[in-house]
Amino acid sequence: MDNRKTDEELLVQIGQHDDAAIRTMVSRKLPRLLAMAVRMLGDRHEAEDVTQEAFVRLWRQAGKWQSGRATFDTWLHRVTLNLCYDRLRRHREQPVAEAPERADPALGPEETLSTQDESDRIRKALASLPDRQREAIVLQYYQEFTNIEAAEIMDISIEALESLLARARRNLRTILQEADEQEKTR
Q1: CATH class of 1-96
Q2: What is the pTM (predicted TM-score) of this model?
Q3: CA–CA gap between residue 160 and residue 181 (Å, rounded)
Q4: How far apart are CA 1 and CA 78, in angstroms?
Q5: Which of 166, 142, 28 is nearest to 81 (CA)?
Q6: d(CA 22, CA 42)
Q7: Where do the domains of the chain lie?
Q8: Measured between alpha carbons, how far is 42 from 38 in angstroms, rounded to an integer?
Q9: What is the mean pLDDT of each run of 10 residues along the chain (186 residues)?
Q10: Which long-range contacts (CB under 8 A, 24 or more apart) does 172-175 make?
Q11: Has domain 107-186 been given CATH number 1.10.10.10?
């Protein structure tokens, strides 16, 4: 695996159906794409299917890649997001949150429950956002893209991204407050 090659150099090799190049690209890009897909879909198995399909598309399209319009990373994230939206449209139901990850053994039982509860609350609130708002939040806060990069991936202006983020944060606050109020009445 040659991690010194740029994405563009690997793309040329992938376009020539070089197995080692695609393995390098997958190892380089899979963690971020999978994390984004899990956040968008709320289901790890669905997210794995989506990222696999994104890499299949990369394999098929690499020979046709032309730089200049968008960066390769932007294109690959956009493909993955589009595949997520296709899945969400097909299911037409709210994504189910993935199973909580194993707790850090250093945490005590109370801290573990509190952390899991908070993660579940946020995951559910995020899943209930409109798709574009969830996409903006995932790109900004979980994928850590800059506003410029996130706007490019979403194919919107920076101002539109900032507006989406503001609405998403407001909606998340409202959803979490309502959940807290419901919990208090139980």
Answers
A1: mainly alpha
A2: 0.64
A3: 31
A4: 26
A5: 142
A6: 27
A7: 1-96, 107-186
A8: 5
A9: 78 90 93 92 92 92 73 88 88 51 51 63 86 90 87 91 93 89 80
A10: 172/125, 172/126, 172/129, 172/137, 175/125, 175/128, 175/129
A11: yes
